Amino acid sequence: MCDSILITGGAGFIGSCLVRQLIAEEAYTQVTNLDKLTYAGNLDSLASVLEHPRHTFVHGDIRDYHLMVDLIARTQPAAIIHLAAESHVDRSIDGPGLFIQTNIVGTYELLEAARFYWSRLPTDRQTRFRFLHVSTDEVYGTLGAAGAFTEEARYAPRSPYSASKAAADHLVGAYHATYGLPTLITNSSNNFGPYQFPEKLVPLMILNAVAGQPLPVYGDGLHVRDWLYVEDHCRAIRLILERGQPGNSYNIGANCERTNLEVVERICDLVDELSPNSARGPAQNLIRHVADRPGHDRRYALDASKIRRELGWQPRHDFEAALRATVRWYLDNPQWVERVTSGKYQGERLGLGRISGG
Questions:
Q1: Does residue 358 carry a pLDDT above 50?
Q2: In the predicted model, what is the mean pLDDT of residues 295-305?
Q3: Nearest to residue 13, comparing CAs of 145, 156, 197, 160?
Q4: For this structure, is 137 an active site residue?
Q5: Cα–Cα distance between 283 and 107 in angstroms, integer?
Q6: What is the DSSP string of 105-173?
Q7: What is the predicted pLDDT for the residue at 279?
Q8: Please, which residues have CB within 8 angstroms of residue 285's CB and are 6 or more apart in sequence?
Q9: What number is the average pLDDT over the span 76-86?
Q10: Active-site pick, 35, 61, 86, 138
Q11: Is 318 part of the annotated catalytic residue set?
């Protein structure tokens, strides 16, 4: 096992998957997990590891510089993986202020705390230290019908969410160029899998279909995304942390493009198969095309040849098998769903651009 590691946002969808992997595979002597526990961060997602002796949960905010300095000093991590972020495009349309504060200001405070710690390490530990920032393909903007974004693509964010993540990416890169902090940036495509908060497309459609509720599809539903199973994403993050070159960015994509409508229709078929309900009828009958969201990017696609070529990564999971497993997980875990949706989010439509005042 390696030294200790600090993960921010480790109670969220991707973060909790990463924490579970690290604990299950005994990758680090100690995993310190900091999370603010917003609506999308839930300790239920960590139930299997929460009391594990190698896992320590800390309730806190990355914007609290003094907390971060103290936590990093106490835990002495060999690496920091930064996942803490506001991540839902629709919420960023309704309330961009929180995205600016968390994704930009929070990343700045964390970078400052990491730099303070790293600059005082012995030379050998300085050399081994890594700060890995987890970002999104949305920073690149929208694509036409052909082509894919490489790591050299120009940033062109088109939503408050993607703009805040792009700003964070630039801050991380600047801290490497200016101060020498050994940083890494990952930009991944659309994740799906168990424990994803039900505002996102895949779990929302699964749960609505099971309940016989309408399945809202934005616009014509032909917006294209590259779909990546969360377990594969987390293994890519770990590989980049171990073998990536500081100062580099790495795209993580599965080369699995599907339109939103195709994904929804396949979910309907799986729900009909795995949870038949004659009273509900075919789940596809529940699909409703609704007004598109403002600035909805038409297509994302990542060229992930760099991580495949340089680090030997490739996804382990087939999309169809992973989607089936995801549908099955939500069917088998209604208690988790009920607990995480019993707060502010109740499945209502977000992203209509209502003035929030924040």
A1: no
A2: 91
A3: 197
A4: yes
A5: 42
A6: IHHHHHHHHHHHHHTTS-HHHHHH-EEEEEEEGGGG----SS--B-TTSPP---SHHHHHHHHHHHHHH
A7: 86
A8: none
A9: 97
A10: 138
A11: no
Model pLDDT for residues 194-207, shown as the tens digit of each residue: 999 988 999 999 99
Task: Exactly one of 28, 140, 161, 175 is catalytic; name it.
Answer: 161
Across the chain, mean pLDDT equals 93
The Cα–Cα gap between 210 and 333 comes to 13
CA distances from 278 to 43, 265, 266, 275, 287 (A): 36, 18, 18, 10, 17
What amino acid is encoded at 186 in this protein? T
Which phi and psi angles does 205 have, rounded to 5°?
-70, -40
Q: Please confirm, yes or no, whether 138 is among the known catalytic residues.
A: yes
Please say whether the beta carbons of 287 and 268 come within 8 A. yes
CA atoms of 278 and 290, how far apart (whole Å): 26
In the structure encoding, which two tokens stand for residue 119, read together?
């600059």
Spatial contact of 257 and 303, defined as CB atoms under 8 Å apart: no
Give ∠ CA 352-10-119 in degrees, rounded to 5: 110
Query: For 36-75, what is each residue's pLDDT tens digit?
Result: 998 888 899 999 999 999 999 999 999 999 999 999 999 9
Structure tokens at 171: 């801050």
- Report d(CA 82, CA 62) in Å as an integer: 10
pTM of the complete model: 0.93
Domains of the chain, with CATH numbers? 5-196+227-258+301-318 (3.40.50.720)
Asked whether the beta carbons of 230 and 13 are under 8 A apart, the reply is yes
**DSSP code for 310:** H
**Exposed/middle/buried for residue 320 (C-beta within 10 Å: 0-12, 13-18, 19+):** exposed
Instruction: Single out the catalytic residue among 90, 137, 169, 226.
Output: 137
